[in-house]
Amino acid sequence: DQQVKQNSPSLSVQEGRISILNCDYTNSMFDYFLWYKKYPAEGPTFLISISSIKDKNEDGRFTVFLNKSAKHLSLHIVPSQPGDSAVYFCAASFQGGSEKLVFGKGTKLTVNP
Amino acid sequence: GAGVSQTPSNKVTEKGKYVELRCDPISGHTALYWYRQSLGQGPEFLIYFQGTGAADDSGLPNDRFFAVRPEGSVSTLKIQRTERGDSAMYLCASSLLTSGGEQFFGPGTRLTVL
Question: Edge-to-edge, what's the strand order for the sheet holding B19-24?
Fold first, then answer.
């Protein structure tokens, strides 16, 4: 069973607009959530994370929101840039991120100039 | 500094052969993780080392898969009697094992079993 779900395989947005990537999880024991970005032929690169004790974390153009009651998190990218085009993976972990990561299937983001 | 490195970048082998995949973590990182990513899927956990010992090997699919980290740094993932279904990207990551410590991934080894 898929414990971390990214239901949108792809998303296309215009440069300068907001990109919103969504992620749902089923295991309420997850206490740490991360977003990774992956370009072709490269390993995933860490983007931003959030602990379950918070509901928002912001880093420059990237903001992650966590809704624990809905078991839902989202990544907002504002403004979107063509270089943001990549596959974005949502991941969840136990023990504050020190243990294994459970990944979603990813969402391919395309930012059009 | 240098990131996580993995060798080889590509490995093509025949069904039934033995393969070894190597991971060099970031210097000083105590935790090392192996994941496997199939086409259209996210990375799936295989095994996690804390120092030299395997802290969690619950993701290894069967006893054909084995991993070691004898000196607490470099790790080798070993696959015996390879099958076509083992074809995937094998990713290695390392971290400092502090609370909230992000995992840094290498570029992966693309394994193809013919």
Answer: B5-7, B19-24, B75-79, B65-68
Q: Convert the pLDDT of each residue in B60-77 to its tens digit.
A: 999 999 999 999 999 999
Mean pLDDT, residues A47-62 taken together = 95
Q: What pLDDT was estimated at residue A41?
A: 84
Residue B31 contacts A where some CB pair is shorter than 8 Å: yes
Of A97, A100, A109, nearest in space to A33 by CA: A97
Residues of chain A contacting residue B4, judged by C-beta atoms under 8 Å apart? 43
Find residues 40-99 of chain B whose CB sits inside 8 Å of chain A: 40-45, 48, 55-56, 59, 91, 93, 95, 97-99
B48 CA: distance to closest CA in chain A (Å): 7
Q: Residue B100 and residue B79: Cα distance in Å, rounded?
A: 31
Judge whether A13 and A78 are in contact, CB under 8 Å: no
Residue B109: pLDDT band (50, 70, 90) is very high
Per the CB < 8 Å rule, is B56 touching A103?
Answer: no
